[in-house]
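so the lab meeting is tmrw and i was supposed to have these ready like two days ago... anyway. pasting both below. for each one the top line is the aa sequence and the line under it is the structure tokens. i havent really looked at them closely yet so no promises
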Amino acid sequence: MLSLTPPKPTATPFSPSPHRRHQRPSHLKPISSSSSSSSSRRPPSPPPPPPLGTAYQPFRPPPVPLPPQYRSLSPTEILSILRDRLGRWHDYAPLISSLSNQGFDPPSIEESTGLSGVEQNRLAVASRVRETLLPSLPPDLLSFFDSAGTADSLYALRLLNASQRVAAATRVAALNLDPKAAQDLARAIKDFPRRRGDYGWASFSADSPGDCLAFTYFRLSREVVDEAEKILALEKALESAETEEAKKRIAYELERTSAGGGGEDDELAAKMRVPVVRLKYGEVAEAASVALLPVCRATEGVRGVEEAPRRLQWEGDLGVVSAEKGWGRWVVLPGWAPVLGLGGESGVAVEFADDARGIPWGKRKEEGVLVVVDRKRKEVVDEDGFYLVGSGGEEGLGVERGKALVEKGVKEGLGSVVMVVRPPSEEDNQLADEDWD
């Protein structure tokens, strides 16, 4: 009998295959045993796609168009170019995204090329940043970023908007700045708008990268204690500033500091006899002596000031403090001379809220302050001094200059202001390390 064997079914392009995605691409030929010396150059197979419902997906930056000479390359050839760093960095950097789109993950790329996952990310992001600069940056400045190492400089500019990025890249290229200087510049530009209202801010221009960096040094000069460090910071600010107004403002501050002035909070504080200081993190723990003061809120009015304990006594070798009455709110300050001069008998700290209404030097500040008051010195005898007064009867408290009180015929306040304490700065001008890595 003649038997008929059914023909084997042939796979059509549309027939599903459960193992198809794990098969080797047709253009990659298997390496024979005779060529075992080159087996290490075989690219790893792309990992299978994650199962459905997986929340985490590796970050893949927006793709950058491949240069024409790289568009027909196989994965093996792409890995070879990356491994040998053939060409300029921004020419082969887009190949990383190309491999990612084909299913290669950072560890498999690192295994074949030696580029760590961090390096892959920096190159891919820097390449994208460079692409955004092409329409605006002149060719002579753009060529600065062809050299090795400049990818890190462009990576530092990634968080800036388009106009800020062009201005920053122009300064980096014109002054031949290294990646660390480029990162400092980018942070200063990013932080500058957040500092609106700070001392001297209006004299600097947000459109000038140099002014933004100069303002960072300008702020630093007001946060250090050593006079030599203040002058050094101001000199760096003057060197970085670009606008004439900023240069004049820095030169004025430098002249005042060199002459022994400066250190107050703003122009008004510079003329008054009340020190305005910013508390630093850890300063209380490191202080050789401390002062303990009762605290009342400005909204508690005259009654809050009057009811705060007046007599504090340190008892025993352990320094236990006892007060004449119970009180719920206290503050510990470093043993600054104006505070220790109160003797623990008449001092009180008045807390003004974030809007700082009612105090002359806080109208532009979006932060609370503590006003330290000596309740024994109520009589208005110093026209240049400042005094705590009731503002609107029992409804709140305020601070006024002695001269203004004399003109109003007021002869006595609630106490004389001896110091103003600002809270520690959160340093929100600097981005966290994880934002840059």
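ok protien two:
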Amino acid sequence: MNATPLRFGVNYTPSQGWFHHWLDFDLDAVRADLDSIAGLGLDHVRVFPLWPLFQPNRTLIRPRAVEQLVQLADAAAERGLDVNVDGLQGHLSSFDFLPAWTRTWHRRNIFTDPDVVAGQVEYLRTLAAALADRPNFIGMTIGNEINQFSGEPHPDPDVITDEQAGAWLRRVLDACEEGAPGKLHVHAEYDAAWYQDEHAFTPAQAARLGGATAVHSWVFNGTAQRHGRKGTMTEHHGAYMIELSKAWALDPHRPVWLQEVGAPAPHIPAEHAGEFTDATIANALDCQDVWGVTWWCSHDVSRSLADFPELEYSLGLLTNDQQVKPAGRTIARIAEEWRGRDHAPEVRSTALVVDTGDSESAPLRSTCAPGGQFYEAWGRLTAQGARPAVVLADLAGDSEHLASRGITEVLTPEQVD
């Protein structure tokens, strides 16, 4: 495996107005935020246009909004920051942002309706093309955890099959590539793709479509509740998701991007946020093929904004007035320690077998979720000092596959038990 430099970045949450800042776009305020992010020694930001504001009508993509996105990217470049752009927002911090032309009187499935998908394709292609010539443009992410619209527990889901999810992903990823050829275009799901039985978006799609696998690690999903703030699986959850994703990858060295991870209170109390951040990143970086870590998020949500879940108000590395918090100091130190170094951890030669039924559709994914047999076995093995990789049940006897990944020992969850 070739050693590669690591990327350290942050999901940009504007200090003034949160993502509603697009309504009153203030480039000076954005520059101040980016100054504070660059001051942490980070090298990239992930930014979030609000889909209904950028494309309020299916055939209207607002030129002024696209221009403001480019201005943000250029301001980031001036501060040494690269930019990834999430297109279809979609869903952010418990709020849904869908255009009126997909809801109520115009209710249409956002994954399968031909007119809606054609509108999405043109929108994503337009954003990608607007930034294609910028050297600091990393590429597009299709949307923020847009899989949450595809089924339960969403209160009004656009229900689809896994085949329909795969067809949609291929089409919108192709649109990004058409707009900005050769850039790193990815899609990112919340952990139902890995943990929820029969969810439409599958691990195979996550690990095989797009230029890298993006994983989002949140320990409020039952991990911290079950294992406590210092539990092995709490501190290794990001690493677990990285290794779990690698089981489905066709390329043994496909890059994995820990694209969202944060320290949510009260599961991680404020006074322990720095410690959790340190452990989470250290454990994630003990995995091979990590592209980078992008923390959630840059700035706290202002208490002047109502109706957010309580934990959303305090996830920032910085306060609203640009003061660095303990987790911010921790990430700044880690970024400095890794600057100029290559990332080449030791191979994980022991693998734990995961059986989710059919490996393509993975109908029995709950074994991978907190409390599931595989999940808990991986945690026990890690607590014993092992560094377990993950291998699919139908590949556990494939000597060529195991050799390509450096795996020399294969265990089942029953053996760990």
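from a quick look at the 2nd one: DSSP finds 14 helices and 15 strands in the chain. The longest helix spans residues 114-131. will dig more after coffe
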